[in-house]
Write the structure tokens for this entry.
Amino acid sequence: MHVAITLVLLAALASALSPPGAVQAAKPRARDLGVPFEGTAGRLNAITDVPGVEVGFTTLIEGDSVRTGVTAILPRGRASTDPVMAGWFSLNGNGEMTGTTWVKEGGFLEGPVFITNTHSVGTVRDASIAWGLKHGAQVQPWSLPVVAETYDGHLNDINGFHVKPEHVFAALDGARGGPVAEGNVGGGTGMICYEFKCGTGTGSRTLEAQAGGYTVGVLVQANHGRRAELRIAGVPVGAELALPPARGGAAPELGSIIIVVATDAPLVPHQLERIARRASLGLARTGATSGNGSGDIFIAFSTANAGAAGARDVATVQMLSNARISALFSGTVQATEEAIVNALVAGETMRGRDGHLVEALPHAALKELLSKYGR
């Protein structure tokens, strides 16, 4: 077993044993730096604030050129094979998320959502089927896994095909609720956004009682945007921390972002597609314009209506009134924005393939800019 996998499993165990409310005490998050956000975050400010959701990672950092991994999001955790209602949306389709034609047609997500690098989608897809067969988690005679990607080839030897089936198994077997690691972890290990080191980020919102008290959680794999576009809490951080002329310029955006939205609100598939669309607005708040080369693909699921997919005749389900859904739209936008900024704040400077170096967002400079702009 690779050393990287062992470290990830130990990290997952430590996370599972953390006391309630413990969130990566050794690594600051955006709020710790004073970044203001709207809305009320959940206890962990993570996608796992939605009851039942589990997240697992395999992080591969080996030698001078392997900087990649796998992220797995399990809607009802490893203990359940009950599908969840889901919807998806492509803001710009220069990317991949497998299995979405059946999500659109059937209205259910029948297993985990995986995120990895562009050239490992096939490996992750096949390994997820093998894991499901081994654990009795395949709900149909066939399986159409949902696997999404972003490109990490600047820092990672993407053509070396370093993600193997055992890495997918490790991410699934290590999946847990509780605090979620951010930054250079899982599929986000080699990712870059706004030309800073970035990767995995998460956030959540809990609605007020009069809005239903529901929770919305978001997890992103952020690998998008040009430096000049970046805005944090309305502050033009990218413009203030511009790249030197020799490194800057009008290079086309070649990155992508995958956004996974979870909620416990009783939403049906067409409503979840509406939720997935709202992730676009959270992305836009950070400055992104979704360029031609960007694969910006989002999926949303609801953990409500348990057992609906297994009904033999007529399923009785609950559906939140459209008149009450706007608060969930707002929560999705807010949690998406914060998840992206959390991914930036958690990113750590990394050197990778061919000696390429990508620097992290400097925390001290961010705090100074927030003060300068009165934020």
User: Anything to note?
Assistant: The CA atoms of residues 8 and 128 lie 18 Å apart. Helices lie at 3-16, 100-106, 121-134, 165-173, 237-240, 269-285, 326-346, 363-372. The first helix runs from residue 3 to 16. DSSP finds eight helices and 14 strands in the chain.
